[in-house]
Amino acid sequence: MKKILFSAYSLDVGGIETALVTLLKYLVKDYDITLVLEKKQGMFLEDLPKEIKIITYTPSSIKFNFVRKAISFIKQFIFKLKYKNKYDFSANFATYSMPASFVARTASQNNAIWIHNNYMNFYDNNIGQYRKFFKTLKIQNFKKIVFVSELDKKVFIAQFPELIKNTLVCNNLINYERIQKLSNEKIPDEDLEKIFGKGYKNITKEDKKVLNSSNSLAKNKIPIFINVGRHDEKQKKISRIIEATEKLNKQGFDFKVLLIGKGTNTKDYQNLIKEKNLNNIIMLGAKKNPYPYFKLSDCFILSSQFEGYPVVFVEAQILGLPILTTNVSDSKKDIDGIYGQVVENSEKGVYKGMKQVLEKGITSTKFDPEKFNEEITQKVKQIIEN
Question: What is the CATH number of domain 3-173+371-385?
Fold first, then answer.
């Protein structure tokens, strides 16, 4: 059995972490896997198969520059002694982590790095900073550079044309059976009361059973939009949903918005919602299992300025939830007119899209997750084996 290694930052809640855990579960039957984490933390740790070995590689965080560099150098030297070229394949799955890149480059000559975002957006289209970021990762030393969308690959090749032969596109796997199963779990009463108000207490016991088993009670009554993701305004732009909701409320539309997630801008969103007195936006915090809330909703809404390839797209498709998204990643190719609608990447676009959904509705075609995963599994095995 071939020995392979994946490196990442942690296993906290997030799209990258979800995709990594799913991938490792698919590969564990065929490979001897080691996972190296910069921080051994996160609620997804308990989801890893027991056969997967976990080790940590954490650089020094001491404030004194000379001491920090000296300790980090010693740690690198020790890691090289123990693991240099000891694996048949190694990959950094968390693009942004410099330590994870060092680990992957060291552990095998047959190595790869996954690029989950369009980093040109992270650096506000500053080409110099974009190139510096990838050079710091020593991108030229990776045998394979794996992008989760065609758009991200095109942006990269424009700046590193000499590395075009190293690049390929491979979407993330999705554990659709788990998602389908988890979507049937009960939503806590306190959350249902937040969503439906005090009137939830007056719902009959029989109706509560229906709601908690199939989450169909609210369907086709008051439309519900749902957004699930990290609260990072620079990327996710959830303020667009808040501003659009205020405009639509003033026009007399009756609907709700569920925000699931947390992040550096959670407080900002809470304050903005309170300031505008938007009682139909319900913040539910981070959820390890957001899928019952998908089934409760009528439309998944993504308001991001930029994305790699959102895992939530495929999660929504699996649960048959139509998608309203800004024009990010490969959404025009993969979503528009098939699994939902793509709108202009702006606050105005989000507002117009939400209004159109409320006035005319939105539909999605049936998604085949088994076929989706089979194609990706074959690609990943080719990446590992070749």
Answer: 3.40.50.2000
Residue 29 DSSP code: T
Report how far residue 293's alpha carbon sits from residue 218's, in angstroms, rounded to the nearest whole number: 11
Q: Per the structure block, which two tokens stand in for 227?
A: 């957004």
| DSSP assignment string, 200-245 | GGGS-HHHHHHHHHH--TTTTSS-EEEEES---HHHH-THHHHHHH
| Domain covering 176-368: architecture | 3-Layer(aba) Sandwich (3.40)
Handedness of CA 149, 151, 152, 158 (dihedral sign): positive
- Confidence tier at 280 by pLDDT (50, 70, 90): very high
Torsion of CA 26, 32, 36, 41, to 10 degrees: 50
pLDDT at 216: 44
First vs last C-alpha separation in the chain: 15
Quickly state the pLDDT bin for 203 (edges 50, 70, 90). Answer: low
Spatial CA neighbour of 230 closest among 268, 259, 258? 259
Domain boundaries, the chain: 3-173+371-385, 176-368
Interval 194-209 mean pLDDT: 66
Report how far residue 16's alpha carbon sits from residue 12's, in angstroms, rounded to the nearest whole number: 9
pLDDT tens-digit readout, 123-172: 989 999 999 999 999 999 999 999 998 989 999 999 999 999 999 999 98
pLDDT tens digit sequence for 303-355: 999 887 888 999 999 999 999 999 998 899 999 999 999 999 999 999 999 99
Q: Which residue has the tokens 């500053």?
A: 126
User: What separation in angstroms does the CA of 11 have from each of 41, 42, 44, 46, 188?
Assistant: 6, 4, 5, 10, 25
Give the type of residue at 45: L
One-letter amino acid identity for 20?
Answer: L
Sequence letter at residue 254: D
Q: Rounded mean pLDDT of 3-17?
A: 90
CB atoms within 10 A of CB 59: 16
Helix (H) or strand (E) holding 169, with range, is: strand 167-169
Identical fold at 3-173+371-385 and 176-368?
Answer: yes
Entry pTM:
0.75
Say what angle helices 15-27 and 369-385 make with each other, to 10 degrees: 80
